[in-house]
Queue: 2 jobs
Job 1
Amino acid sequence: MAESKCGVIAVVGRPNVGKSTLMNGMIGEHLSITSSKPQTTRHRVLGVMTETIKDVPTQFIFVDTPGFQTKHSNALNKTMNRAVLTALADVNVILWVIEQGKLTPADMKVLELCPKGVPLVAVVNKVDLLEKKAEILPFLEKVSGQRNFDAIVPLSAQAIKNLDALKEAVSALLPEQPFFYDEDTLTDRPEKFLAAERIREKLFRLVGDELPYTCTVVIDKFEIEDGRRLIYASILVDRSSHKAMIIGKGGEKLKRIGSEARQDMERLFGGSVHLETWVKVRSGWADNATLLQSLGYE
């Protein structure tokens, strides 16, 4: 019997198929931000789960990636696509996530990016939306004809259904080797990054459909005093009209964004947080490659 298994698992797919929700469900922590809007994930986010699978200590190192963009070509989308390709470069297993009943050209484009020779699992998400389980069978047959998959796993990341089957399927494909991280490690991302992501998640969830895509978040100062985190953040927008939308009447919208983000940070960090946010106009930030790099986009 193997002493331990460990490996890196890339989670890839077109926008809005549930990649981040899947990783969060697998590691049991709301690490990667989520919303109903595409492009919520903009960065490579690593999540670590250490668990015993069939009596073998196993460390899963998930790499959540942005949805691969096929329609837009600004600097931000090019940066996100580069994050996907980088994630695929050196992994032990790839999870190709699709939505039940839908096999689009964008899905197939992502599948084409998956290198041959790397174990590949098709994850068919959102099966909880089906009225009858048998309805999934024709679609699974169609999926199986697209590539020689090592496994095809139907599940619901949102409802946390059949995730154990995916864990077992992935574990069987991981190499026997020592753990890369301590057993209590959750991610390689610093708290400063996680704080910015929590604010950005609230922007996606609490403002209009178009506005989030012209916003990003910068942490201006992150300090810890007597166990309390003091966080000062700027929300960058493209136009003055966007600034007014985020602030809201009497500042109520910005207050709600900050309050909900702070509560999420306190749960994630396990301690008190003081958060202050400002909204600033920086036109053209999403199409400025140099600026994107300075803002932490890889």
Job 2
Amino acid sequence: MNANPQHQALQPIQLHLGKSVAKPLTPSPERAATQRWSVDAVEALFNLPFNDLMYRAQQVHREHFNANEVQLSTLLSIKTGGCPEDCGYCPQSVHHETGVEASKMMERDAVMDAARSAQALGATRFCMGAAWRAPKDRDIEKVADMVRGIKSLGMEACCTLGMLNGEQARSLKEAGLDYYNHNLDTAPETYGNIITTRDYQDRLDTLAHVRDVGLSVCSGGIVGMGENRRDRAGLVAQLANLEPYPESVPINELVQVEGTPLHGTEALDPFEFVRTIAVARITMPTARVRLSAGRQQMSEAVQALCFLAGANSMFYGEKLLVTGNPDADRDRALLDKLGMTAAL
């Protein structure tokens, strides 16, 4: 009998049995959709001694991935500003005075030029973001044409365009889109403190539409928005309990922008960010866990710990939508120092 009182809490829970049943810490890919993580179980992972948590995350990571390889994605804002949502972190909201001006959607040729540049720098996935609450059908037609162009380059294509209905998701799938990004942002219990113009179910509905047409899901969240550790556990539990969990999980650290309601929030301890990466890796073993927004403010040592904790994807390029990101030369130098290579 294990004397550690946390031992039972560290196991996923299989809900349809009606009780907690001890299972291996790392669900296999074919069983991932039937495993469940309670918030208590995820919080228990967060509460492990740091070295123990990192060890477990490394075990899981190495079981499913090359631990010295990272997938590179580039994110381009194809339509900036003027968003009617009131997300407390976002400088593109019309509700916040941040100096970001609304612009029209980029032309296809300009987007293709950006994609070719990203590919030349080593990115294998090109992500397009637009500041909409929900796109119109005519917008989807234009984006679908861009997707076909991206695919003609041999790159993976991803979009984040706001809420989708089923027909819009199908149109993007037929154009060749690989991934659709729609973040849950935070735990259900704290969601209303961050956003009031869209509810949690709206986000889950969009993810369901995306899944229904066979698109891969990219969904994660933002930490450092004033939440506590249990809130972070709640976010990870929500993601890990999606059926199946996302293929790609971006973990963002809040980038504080003057004029947004969350400007001035107490900064998250770097070790807590690393813990979030490790817990995401353990609970979603076959997902690409991505270092996303906030990386520019991280030291190289913190980023190295994130890779050790199981991050194996990152946004690559000098800008993420309207916020800064380390430039490509700096990123290549860091990967060289760590003996890591870009996934092909």
